[in-house]
Amino acid sequence: MTTAATLRTDERRFMELALEMASNATIETSPNPKVGCVIVKDGSVIGRGWTQPVGQAHAEVQALRDAAAQGYDVKGAVAYVTLEPCSHFGRTPPCANALVDAGVARVVAAIGDANPQVAGRGFAILQQAGISVASAAELGWQDIADTAREMNIGFFKRMETGTPWVRLKVAGSLDGKTALPNGQSQWITGPEARQDGHRWRARADAILTGIGTVIADNPALTVRGISTPRQPHKIVLDSQLRIDPNAQLFNAANVMIVCAQENAEKQAALIARGAEVLCLPDSQGRIDLPALMRELGRRQYNEVHVEAGATLNGALMTAGCVDELLVYLAPKLLGNGAGLFKLPTLSHVDQSPQLSINDLTTIGDDIRLLARIKHKA
User: Fold this and answer.
1) Which is the catalytic residue, given 11, 60, 303, 324?
2) 83 has pLDDT over 50
3) Contact assessment for residue 35 and residue 22, using Cβ atoms and an 8 Å cutoff
């Protein structure tokens, strides 16, 4: 005998499977969110799908195609999807309409879409067609809703604020040093931590650094050692355009140099190397960091990964541009040396940025810590 409790347990299981499907979506979906969909009829899964690379089919359409390829009739079925089906014409037609046309009887979504072009309209289209709609929160699955949002944290941040999710990565010793006084910093953390850092690079739309890091290290700013379908864009903050046009980061495409002072000759040399130069000065003649984040949001960057020195790290923190810290700490004590952040002097402890620890784990011999910034309302 099927009880209401049994049905609810089954529904949760199907939604968890939809989340597994979403995890298959690659980083190529950006700026679209990663979504999973499972179609169920008479208690059996008849179709599965997840978001394809940008411009291709969304999860719901993939699941409908999967069911059709297996010879199943989806009329009267239930679709479990990790995000409210889209309701607008973008690069692809609306998924809500596809579900209506397919004749499904019920749609269970993990969370509503924060995109102002959707934001409840997908649910409305379904309900107007006589399709039953429920959300994870309505079913008491707040953890499911939280997981679905976390999977697309950058997408939600951009939709809600117009700016990307900024994750700032630092690596140092237990006493908070990133290099010795002579500048030596390779390698403080172990190979496992460094490879893990490249995984975080891979999921970002862009890697951001400062001119000091480029001059000191001549980094490639690429994802290495792991498989990735695309390289993130590269952004260098260089107020006075001191960067060498022969720096190795120009060996690949999609480089943006952000400055605060126009210099036609230098800009021409950088453009000749294939870079874009963006001048964004603030009232003090420095780079306007909040304006830069708004511009990156306008360009549909969901996640930005920062790997910079203490000065830029501190400036981004002070400007309120950081959402999360990705910290690797090695079991070493380096004494005097470069620190993680250059922050203004405080007179009271309660003036310091407020953080919450979201994850703490070991990676090889090192500690990886994820801390969220508690932004003031």
Assistant:
1) 60
2) yes
3) yes
